[in-house]
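Practice problem: predict the structure.
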Amino acid sequence: MDRVLFTHKGTQFLQYDTNEHECSVNGHHQVDMQSTNQSSLTSTSRGSSESGEPSGDTKWASKLLKDCAKAISDKDSSKIHHLLWMLNELASPYGDCDQKLASYFLQALFCKATESGQRCYKTLISVAEKSHSFDSARKLILKFQEVSPWTTFGHVASNGAILEALEGESKVHIIDISNTLCTQWPTLLEAMATRNDETPRLKLTVVVTENMVRSVMKEIAQRMEKFARLMGVPFEFNVVTGLNRLGGITKEGLGVQEDEAVAVNCMGALRRVEVEERGAVIKMLSSLNPRVVTVVEEEADFSSPRNDFVKCFDESLRFYTLYFEMLEESFVPTSNERLMLERESARSMVRVLACDEDHQNGSFGGDCERREKGNQWSERLKENFTQFSFSDDCIDDVKALLKRYRAGWSLVQPQENDLGLYLTWKDEPIVWASAWKP
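Answer:
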């Protein structure tokens, strides 16, 4: 069983089991879910009173995590040591929502405090890649889409804008920059096949930078080609690989032809471009002269200046608290898919909060994780594009989609028409969808 040991000032604080993704203090594994539930009330009361929080407060994790982030920012080593120990005593990746948040943010905070973010992140990615397969990835994405509109909201909104922008075109080229393994496209192919005018020829180019996605593209290509034949849509499938980061995309590498009507689909893509490179990538996309560019991003701002760690941490905690609470209500407690989504978030936490110095020095490869909010993306996109409004039919389709899910989800259209659409969870905006044209 593989283990990665971390020490701080001679004390072994955390011990990561790279097969089970557990943490421990001084070599002792955290207690399991049953014993945690029994002991956490006493431990939480003790820990909360020590940190100045009322003992009856059930949201203990937020207080302790924020105090720890502040201590790291202030370089208060004794307080860091105390809070890391306390969090590790209370946290569990198999407990309630607070215990899970404490467990995964603890990992990121420890890596930040010990400057071990790059090493930990590479280990987490390596472990995830070893267990990754087409079947497991497909099952995870489809199950998530079954219980939550987190990704399907963007699919429906984007497909509606793409179909409208490409109406009447005979040769269509969609450039897909996303991480949902082409699950967006079967419904679009079906819609193209049933159009009143002649079925267009479709070329789909998928841009891939992650090894985990790259490893399953052959299987995806075969399934997409088979489905296109079934729908009677002339189809060509291309994959752009060899990129270590999305900032390396070029017009030539995408293989755009002059006689093609181009649509660019950015589903959670632009956040993976380094903040300093985003303007250049957006400008490159405009050089393709696309009929439409669809942009879907999660509503969070992780782009704070690198020296403002506390601000970035607070926003990360706000966003992932919403996300974990949504997962808790959407999945059964024993769901393996839920655990996989939480571990994926844990990797992002380490990437955002503990890997900045390595990346800034040019020693860290891979995609960025620095999300921005819809109004920030709008300002960037307006430099090269104008807003493409969603039609009433498209909005009706999104509303119909949300009715398939449990209560709590809603669609918000801001008064300002140039801010796209927002998916909200219990009145909190979480995903932003927009469409743009040159």
